[in-house]
Design a protein that fits this description.
By secondary structure, the protein is mostly helical. It contains 22 helices and no strands.
């Protein structure tokens, strides 16, 4: 119950007993005393010592750890025994979710962006995610590097050249391979990789960071729903369910990402060095190396391993981007970037609410692409959101929202303009081999084929392989850190043994995926987690302003 409601209730109860006019002065005195006690309680809530929180965390039995490990193991066993049935079931699950709940994911993703814009520019924007005078824990460069490395680093490498070209060759809106198709392809790509993905990440991040760093709750997704249930006895079961859903979504989402990266690395090694890596043994060797490296990184902690790797990632990423920009059609890329930003902004209001009720073919295309992306970002939001929250201590809500939405989106737009622009130029000029590659859905090969058409192919391919590798290591390291936090009652410095346990689990699960060479079962599992977690995001959005209004009212910004 909110502070004001508790005070009103107290005053009402007192007046029932003391009804004479002469008692009013005494009633006012009691109400003021009660109000002071309430304000002190809320203030102390913000001033709780970190050691006190850690002690609470140690005392709580962590059901999340036991349940999440049990579910993951059960999934592995069932998938191994009933492989064909799981493949069929996964397809049915994905189809059912995208067909029947696509509208919900569209509204949630778009609503998250609108909601965050309101938070940033409202009176709540100046609320500090930490003590009122606290400064950011990480500098801007390191913060943006870690933000991007955990968020979408691997994805833009995988799809940078492939996705714009795919939508150009098979456009759902215009005639394919036309000027209109090219412009629409860039706008569609930005819809998938723009503010919608970062919006759901940031919504989760703001809630977790506020309740963790400002209200001194445990650093868990469930902490942002504290007191939301009208029945106090349900608080603990609700917290366990919420944190379990978030943990499972992280496990399956990361495993699919690691598997995709492994496939792309194998393709790069085969094209660059002629190594037959596109086979189970090659996948196993790549995955083993990734596992060793992110375990080594995990032992160094957040401020060393993850921070250093993230900075290295961004430096390498910018270097590769600069090379492709200079070696490719530079002037065309600049024009395409400006045109893409304009097309994205002008078409965003209609695209953001597009569900295609009158066009079944377009609706099916949306289910395969747009809805799949939106559910993917929601499934990934507990991992990325918690990680963004962890590195954002000391920043205001406005800084976190604008920093997460604007800078990464602009960088992503330029990345797709450079890599997608180079790919589009080749195809428009008659490159049939690139067309055949995309038509055959050989998306992992797209980046390396593009580099083959440019100078210094050997060097840039090696740099790209290394970049994919370090992005995977950083993502896995960050995810294991978050998983260890989630399964240790929100411990900001989880035990090394717990991080190693999750590293072993993730390596085993990913190895199972790459062995079969099909991501469908785990993608379906991740999307299945998106449904329940979408409800959690809605509850976060409802509960956050309740506390923020009190925060602003008491002038404890």
């Amino acid at each position: 119950m909110k502070q004001d409601e508790e005070i009103d209730k107290f005053e009402s109860e007192v007046k029932k007993t003391y009804r004479r006019e002469s008692d009013q002065e005494q009633i006012d005195a009691w109400v003021q005393e009660f109000k002071g006690a309430m304000e002190l309680r809320f203030a102390n809530d913000e001033a709780r010592d970190q050691e006190e929180i850690r002690e609470e965390e140690r005392e709580n039995m962590n059901f999340n750890l036991v349940l999440s490990l049990t579910i993951t193991l059960a999934f592995l066993v069932v998938s191994f025994i009933y492989r064909n049935s799981m493949m069929e079931l996964s397809g049915q699950i994905k189809g059912y979710i995208t067909k029947n709940f696509g509208w919900f994911f569209v509204l949630l993703s778009t609503g998250a962006v609108i909601y965050l814009a309101y938070l940033a520019f409202s009176r709540f924007g100046d609320v500090v995610l930490g003590d009122p005078k606290e400064r950011p824990e990480f500098g801007d460069i390191s913060w943006y590097s870690m933000l991007f490395s955990a968020g979408m680093g691997v994805g833009i490498l995988f799809w940078g050249a492939a996705e714009p070209l795919t939508h150009y060759l098979n456009n759902p809106i215009h005639d394919s391979q036309t000027t209109e198709a090219a412009r629409a392809a860039m706008a569609i790509t930005m819809l998938h990789w723009g503010v919608h993905g970062w919006g759901v990440y940031t919504l989760c991040a703001v809630a977790v960071a506020y309740y963790g760093f400002r209200k001194r709750k445990s650093y868990l997704v469930s902490s942002s729903l504290t007191g939301l249930s009208p029945i106090k006895a349900l608080d603990r079961p609700l917290a366990v369910i919420v944190d379990l859903t978030a943990t499972i979504a992280i496990v399956f989402g990361l495993a699919a990402s690691l598997a995709m990266g492994t496939f792309q690395m194998a393709s790069g090694l085969e094209k660059t060095f002629g190594v037959a890596a596109n086979q189970p043994m090659g996948y196993a060797a790549i995955l083993a190396l990734i596992t060793v490296c992110f375990v080594a990184s995990a032992t160094t902690g957040l401020k060393k391993g993850i921070k250093i790797l993230s900075n290295l990632n961004m430096l390498t990423c910018v270097t590769l981007l600069a090379f492709v920009f200079v070696a490719g059609p530079s002037l065309f890329d600049i024009k395409l970037f400006i045109d893409t930003i304009g097309g994205y902004i002008s078409n965003l209001p209609s695209m953001a609410f597009q569900v295609a009720p009158f066009t079944p073919e377009y609706e099916k295309w949306m289910a395969d692409w747009t809805i799949t992306y939106f559910t993917w970002w929601i499934a990934w939001s507990p991992f990325v959101g918690i990680f963004i929250a962890r590195i954002s201590r000391g920043r205001t809500i406005k800084e976190l929202v604008l920093g997460s939405l604007l800078v990464p989106v602009l960088f992503t737009a330029f990345w797709f303009s450079v890599f997608g622009g180079a790919a589009l130029t080749l195809v428009i000029n008659g490159d049939t081999q690139f067309v055949a590659l995309i038509e055959a859905a050989k998306y992992p090969d797209a980046l390396f084929y593009l580099l083959e058409c440019m100078p210094f192919t050997q060097l840039t391919s090696i740099v790209s392989i290394c970049l994919i590798f370090t992005f995977l290591v950083t993502s896995a390291d960050s995810a294991c850190f978050v998983l260890a936090m989630m399964t240790s009652e929100g411990d900001l410095d989880p035990k090394m043994s717990l991080k190693l346990l999750w590293a072993a689990v993730m390596a085993t699960l990913t190895a199972f995926l790459v062995k079969d060479g099909d991501l469908a079962p785990i993608q379906a599992a991740a999307q299945l987690c998106a449904g329940p977690f979408a409800i959690v995001l809605l509850l976060m959005a409802i509960s956050l302003p309740v506390r923020l209004r009190h925060q602003v009212r008491q002038r404890r910004i």
